[in-house]
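Could you join me in thinking about how sequence relates to backbone shape in a protein? Would you write everything just below, so we can both look at the same thing?
***
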Amino acid sequence: MKLLVLHGINLNMFGQRDPAQYGTATLADIDAALTALAGELGVTVECFQTNHEGTMCERIHQAHRDGVDGVLINAGAWTHTSIAISDALAILRCPIVEAHMSNIHAREPFRRQSFIAAIARGQICGFGVDSYLLGLRALAGQIKS
């Protein structure tokens, strides 16, 4: 089973950007934790990050062509702004889980809207790095069941 983890805009700055909100783990730390968990779950995970919306859409299109089994996505600010990414994700025929380090529902009003939520199997937010790990567990579980 091949799963794709997509990290959106500015998430390469984890560990440096607003540690009170996002903690001190870097994106490399998160990817390492996801890779380790994937091994425990018996799945393969590929992690991808970009700060370019079109590049993210292209990667999602490639995931469709590759027939990935599931996608875990933290689109960052694009969650609240990008119909293009939502439309690209809607092309996929696999489960999608949305994850966020912070609790987007307890933040500024504009962050409470997600263009991804309506097409995702579920959303996990507010647990820091554990949001990603819980999301990967949920995604693998959805596919196996």
User: Anything to note?
Assistant: The chain is about 40% helix and 20% strand.
